[in-house]
């Protein structure tokens, strides 16, 4: 295996991109990711915050104490992982992390791994999705992604600009991926529109260092519109128009408990940004 | 004088009749209360060594030329090896040897669970061994997989016959009871997760085998390895100087030891076989899940007249059936008690003892049921417990029992419930719950210690025991220092090597201090007597400082030896306690926060109050994990473990630790040894789950019936409670 350390976007030439390594290294070790070439992009991806634009190489530890970003993002960073992981993990990498579904992590030949069934649906799924869980019941683990969806973030990559919601896609028979990022495409910056208020609330099964059972981000945007997005409820970060949409959730037998939990958190998040 | 006796030996609630040579224990117990060294807080003698990384654990042993072993484990929950080809593994770089089923004890053709050891490889590096294991070609014949414990019991698939006990006339007592409550409780499978994974490094020196192993029982390893390999016991040397936790899972050698020994024999090189964290989650043992169908009957005055329990232990493929019924049989005075305990054999990883096996689970069920009974009778839960106080253990007198003192000491904590409840608001409901604790912990003979004292007045305690991380070295040094009347810093404890000291007890079943402490004291007293003789011959007063008496000895040494005396005949040696827990429950999101735990225990004399409070804190924190967040999950289709990593299997973090108040009755058991101390390793994990569940009930009126009390279970219990109560009515019982 070789490790490249390019210093500009132009030098990028294939390989598996690694930034903080908190996701890629465990996946390599478990054999879920194979790489002949690792590309350390820390010299390529901008880092730091300037006037509403955040370098995708900024670590979660830097963001959790950054006064110039909205509360929802700061709080999502603060409640993510552990101090050690937040010191290494980057904003861009966090958006691209894979599901924590144990079947996927253990290499079961599930739909996300190209197989023809979702093992969680008939199996052990108590931590899984309550929306869009027909094809794959995995739950998206990123607190930060939910916060950015609520905040209406725009992303700039080395090839295009896109809404954060365009980064994610539900997997289907034709394409099992959960993001639209192309080979060789790299998230460089995250741009946040100004918001009037925002909040992120997270339910965990212990006080720290856990992925969200349910995470709720809410933001009040200029002009009075409100955006709500959830983590841990669907295979991708899940936006809902209003709390009422939770009534249309399609939980599995052992994920029904997430619905009242999400309802309570959405209610509280909306109250927090009033 | 030595005396041959036939006696009952107890470890972890398992009894066996054994012949023992015991020595008389003529020493008077010390007076109650803190002495000069014993009973006063002492920091761990090896604390600095450990935090500086200088303590040499088994995982740190690196012998010259050492090879690394990896184990091939069954991917199937039940299967038989039809054909296995080790040749592809042997062709890979760095590989030195490979063994298959039957070639080392523990490697078997029939795999009874996913993770069962089948074959092993030794190579220059662990990565090479791992790669070689993956290259082994196995043709499997898949067999029927049984995962449901009640189905297994129905079909007679059990690891042991059902254990039945009955006293009185249970059916009649229920018929005559004023109030009967019943409920089904379920507890989950949890994992020990010792910091140091299970491992051994084996090296042959001629026909002698040296085993460096992370173990709770040096002498048990020696015996079992010798018996299995057909060696004389004195040809097996077992070393464990520092140990990274066991919690009951490291009492036996297991496949990794035999794999290392066999591969070492075949290669002529030392071989290390260490489980990975993943293997620790599939193949190193667990506290098995239980189903408890319980019933209690009482008169309206609060007298418990009948108890009935059907317990199902999901033992797994192998293991033993823990005494889940124990608390029901022994905690309360009740004339009519009937229990049956099933031992389901499943295609799941084998159980191993885990910190008060059976009693931690059984106390959750029983003490939640007692709370239900108190509510139905409208009697204060503390009063109900007091009024059913057991004066004997099913007729056998206790060597000592000070649970009454525990209840009295619990009062101020229990009183706080009014103020705690009053701090509830519309979202966060607060309440207080309690549960009592009963468990073994008396230790027993045989165990021996030597004390060596030089002319500089420094003493060395030598005994081939192990310190499994509980602070044993310090406690033993305190006992020796007290008896020798030398400063604590003048005593060193040498342990951890079967070639360097006499037989010593297992460190399981809360037995280390009660088994070893009296032997160390006896050895120190033997040395002390000799010192007093010398003083007398020199015309010095009896209380002349030791270094002054022995100061002219130059190279001479005073050698003392001591043995653990017998346990009191015809008496039941048990430990007691009570926990009072304060919780806050977010009734909208099901979040449970444990805010304060008062843990009060009666374990005889406390040798080191600082070490004792560490034990209680550890037990409480581990118990909070078992109560709220930990669960090993299996795929219901394949029986494979799904929670193989520490992000999927959730132990508490430091942020989850509440305020913990430790209190001890600290009264020596006058019938137990020259020390009067019982063990404390296990008691603090016994009552915590029930106390938390009862606090939740106090706070919200919701009855939880399952561990862990996940949000799913908490929200279910809140929903059911809301259905029972008219809306707007006060939730508290």
Query: How many β-strand runs of chain B?
Result: 27
Most extensive chain interface and residues per partner: A-B, 25 and 30 residues
Oligomer: heterodimer
What would CATH call the class of chain A? Answer: Alpha Beta
DSSP summary, beta strand count of chain A: 12
Derived from helix and strand composition plus strand pairing, the structural class of chain B reads: alpha+beta
Which parts of chain B are unreliable, with pLDDT below 50 for 5 consecutive residues or more? Answer: 727-733
List low-pLDDT spans of chain A.
none
Span between termini of chain A:
52 Å
Structural class of chain A: alpha+beta
Major beta-sheet overview of chain A: 5 strands, antiparallel
Percent strand of chain A equals 15-25%
- Give a quick account of the main beta sheet of chain B: strands, pairing sense, barrel closure: 7 strands, mixed
Return the domain count of chain B.
Answer: 3
Report on this model:
The complex is a heterodimer of chains A (274) and B (733). By secondary structure, chain A is α+β, with helices and mostly antiparallel strands. Chain A has helices at residues 24-29, 60-63, 71-78, 83-88, 91-95, 102-105, 119-122, 143-151, 164-167, 258-272; strands at residues 2-4, 16-18, 37-40, 49-50, 53-55, 154-157, 161-163, 187-191, 195-203, 214-221, 226-231, 238-240. Chain A is built from ten helices and twelve strands. Chain A has a five-stranded antiparallel sheet with strand order 4-5-8-6-7. A four-stranded antiparallel sheet of chain A has the order 9-10-11-12, with helices on both faces. A three-stranded parallel sheet of chain A has the order 1-3-2, with no helix packed on it. In chain A, α3 runs antiparallel to α8. Chain B contains 19 helices and 27 strands. In chain B, α10 (359-377) runs parallel beside α18, α14 runs parallel beside α15 (512-537) and α17 (609-628) crosses α18 (688-700). Chain B is globular and about 80 Å long. Chains A and B meet through α6 and α10 of A and α19 of B.
């Amino acid at each position: 295996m070789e490790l490249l350390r390019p210093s500009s976007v132009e030098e990028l030439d294939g390989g598996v991109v690694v930034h903080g390594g908190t996701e890629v290294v465990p996946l390599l070790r478990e054999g879920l990711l194979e790489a002949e070439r690792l590309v350390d992009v820390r010299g390529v991806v901008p880092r730091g915050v300037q006037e509403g634009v955040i370098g995708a190489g900024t670590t979660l530890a830097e963001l959790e104490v950054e006064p110039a970003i909205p509360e929802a993002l700061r709080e999502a960073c603060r409640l993510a992982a552990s101090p050690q992981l937040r010191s290494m993990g980057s904003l861009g990498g966090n958006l691209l992390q894979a599901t924590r579904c144990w079947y996927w992590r253990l290499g079961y030949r599930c739909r996300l791994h190209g197989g023809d069934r979702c093992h969680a649906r008939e199996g052990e799924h108590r931590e899984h999705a309550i929306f869009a869980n027909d094809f794959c019941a995995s739950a998206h683990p990123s607190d930060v992604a939910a916060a950015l969806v609520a905040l209406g973030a725009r992303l700039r990559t080395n090839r295009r600009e896109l809404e954060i919601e365009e980064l994610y896609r539900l997997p289907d028979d034709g394409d099992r991926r959960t993001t639209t990022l192309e080979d060789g495409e790299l998230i460089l910056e995250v741009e946040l529109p100004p918001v009037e208020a925002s909040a992120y609330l997270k339910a965990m099964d212990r006080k720290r260092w856990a992925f969200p059972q349910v995470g709720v981000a809410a933001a009040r945007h200029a002009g009075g519109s409100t955006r709500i997005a959830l983590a841990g409820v669907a295979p991708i970060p899940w936006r809902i128009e209003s709390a009422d949409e939770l009534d249309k959730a399609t939980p599995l037998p052992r994920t029904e408990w997430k619905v009242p939990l999400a309802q309570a958190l959405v209610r509280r998040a909306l109250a927090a940004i009033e | 004088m030595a005396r041959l006796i036939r006696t009952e030996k107890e470890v972890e609630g398992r009894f066996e009749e054994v012949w023992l040579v015991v020595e008389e224990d003529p020493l008077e117990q010390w007076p109650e209360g803190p002495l000069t060294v014993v009973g006063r807080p002492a920091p761990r003698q090896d604390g600095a060594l450990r935090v500086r990384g200088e303590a040499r654990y088994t995982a740190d042993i690196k012998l010259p030329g050492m090879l690394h072993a990896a184990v091939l484990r069954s991917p199937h929950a039940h299967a038989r090896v039809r054909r296995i080809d080790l040749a592809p593994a042997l062709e890979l770089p760095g590989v030195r040897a490979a063994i298959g089923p039957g070639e080392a004890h523990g490697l078997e053709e029939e795999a009874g669970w996913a993770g069962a050891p089948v074959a092993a490889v030794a190579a220059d590096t662990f990565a090479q061994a791992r790669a070689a294991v993956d290259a082994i070609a196995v043709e499997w014949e898949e067999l029927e997989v049984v995962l449901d414990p009640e189905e297994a019991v129905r079909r007679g698939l059990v690891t042991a016959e059902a254990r039945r006990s009955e006293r009185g006339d249970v059916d009649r007592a229920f018929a005559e009871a004023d109030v009967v409550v019943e409920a089904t409780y379920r507890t989950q499978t949890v994992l020990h997760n010792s910091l140091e994974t299970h491992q051994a490094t084996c090296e042959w020196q001629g026909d002698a085998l040296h085993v460096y192993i992370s173990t709770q029982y040096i002498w048990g390893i020696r015996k079992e390895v010798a018996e299995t390999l057909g060696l004389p016991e004195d040809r097996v040397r077992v070393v464990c100087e520092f140990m990274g936790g066991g919690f009951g899972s490291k009492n036996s050698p297991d496949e990794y030891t035999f794999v290392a020994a066999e591969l070492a024999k075949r290669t002529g090189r030392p071989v290390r076989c260490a489980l990975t964290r993943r293997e620790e989650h599939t193949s190193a043992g667990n506290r098995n899940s239980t189903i408890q169908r319980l019933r209690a009957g009482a008169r309206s005055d609060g007298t418990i007249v009948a108890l009935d329990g059907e317990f199902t232990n999901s033992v797994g493929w192998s293991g033993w059936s823990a005494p889940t019924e124990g608390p029901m049989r022994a905690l309360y005075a009740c004339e009519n008690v009937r229990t049956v305990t099933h031992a389901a054999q499943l295609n799941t990883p084998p159980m191993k003892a885990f910190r008060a096996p059976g009693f931690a689970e059984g106390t959750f069920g029983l003490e939640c049921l007692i709370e239900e009974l108190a509510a139905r009778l409208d009697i204060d839960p503390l009063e109900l417990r007091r009024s059913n106080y057991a004066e004997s253990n099913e007729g056998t007198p206790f060597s000592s029992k000070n649970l009454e003192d525990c209840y009295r000491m619990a009062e101020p904590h229990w009183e706080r419930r009014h103020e705690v409840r009053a701090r509830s608001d519309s979202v966060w409901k607060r309440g207080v719950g309690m549960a009592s604790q009963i468990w073994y912990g008396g230790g027993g003979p045989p165990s021996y210690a030597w004390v060596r004292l030089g002319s500089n007045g420094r003493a060395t305690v030598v005994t081939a025991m192990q310190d499994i991380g509980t602070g044993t070295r310090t406690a033993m040094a305190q006992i020796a220092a007290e008896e020798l009347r030398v400063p604590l810093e003048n005593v060193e404890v040498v342990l951890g090597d079967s070639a360097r000291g006499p037989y010593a007890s297992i460190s399981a079943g809360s037995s280390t201090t009660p088994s070893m402490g009296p032997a160390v004291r006896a050895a120190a007293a033997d040395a002390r007597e000799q010192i007093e003789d010398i003083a007398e011959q020199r015309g010095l007063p009896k209380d002349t400082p030791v270094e002054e008496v022995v100061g002219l000895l130059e190279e001479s040494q005073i050698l003392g030896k001591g043995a653990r005396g017998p346990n009191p005949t015809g008496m039941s040696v048990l430990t007691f306690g009570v926990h009072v827990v304060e919780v806050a429950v977010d009734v909208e999101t099901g979040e449970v926060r444990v805010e304060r735990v008062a843990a009060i225990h009666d374990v005889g004399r406390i040798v080191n109050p600082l070490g004792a409070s560490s034990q209680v804190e550890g037990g409480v924190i581990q118990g909070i994990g078992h109560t709220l967040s930990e669960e090993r999950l299996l795929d219901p289709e394949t029986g494979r473990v799904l929670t193989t990593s520490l992000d999927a299997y959730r132990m508490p973090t430091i942020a989850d630790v509440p305020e913990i108040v430790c209190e001890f009755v600290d009264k020596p058991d006058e019938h137990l040894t020259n020390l009067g101390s019982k063990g404390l390793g296990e008691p603090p994990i016994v009552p915590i789950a029930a106390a938390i569940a009862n606090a939740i009930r106090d706070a919200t009126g919701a009855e939880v019936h399952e561990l862990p009390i996940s949000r799913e279970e908490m929200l279910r219990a809140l929903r059911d409670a809301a259905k029972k109560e008219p809306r707007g009515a006060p939730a508290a019982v």
